[in-house]
Design brief:
Layout: H1 3-16, H2 19-105
């Protein structure tokens, strides 16, 4: 496979290194790994914070939508009452015209 030559190269390179160089190389790789883990932890923390902020914003928007829905219900109720009132006024006007017509005949 293609990874075998790389493994052979690593073995040859490691055999050419002194014990101190091997220790230093191992420490360097551990340091790089620790840095990568720290970056990953930071990314996770930022993602959690962003998710929390998003959830808070979503909750606020949900509450706002509920308030808007309640206000729309109130407006709908007011329009319905106003429509009934206009119909009632229209009937009263018709009744008044009929009475005026009868009075004009008398």
């Amino acid at each position: 496979t293609s990874s075998e030559p790389a493994a052979d190269d690593n073995i040859q390179m490691a055999s050419a290194m002194t014990n101190q160089q091997l220790v230093d190389s191992g420490r360097n790789q551990m340091d790089q790994t620790d840095e990568a883990i720290a970056r990953s932890k930071m990314d996770v923390a930022q993602t959690v914070q962003f998710g929390s902020q998003t959830a808070t914003t979503l909750t606020q928007h949900t509450e706002q939508m509920k308030r808007i829905g309640n206000e729309l219900d109130s407006v709908h109720f007011s329009l319905k009452k106003a429509s009934q009132l206009v119909k009632e006024i229209g009937r009263q006007v018709s009744t008044d015209k009929c009475i005026m017509g009868l009075l004009a005949l008398i």
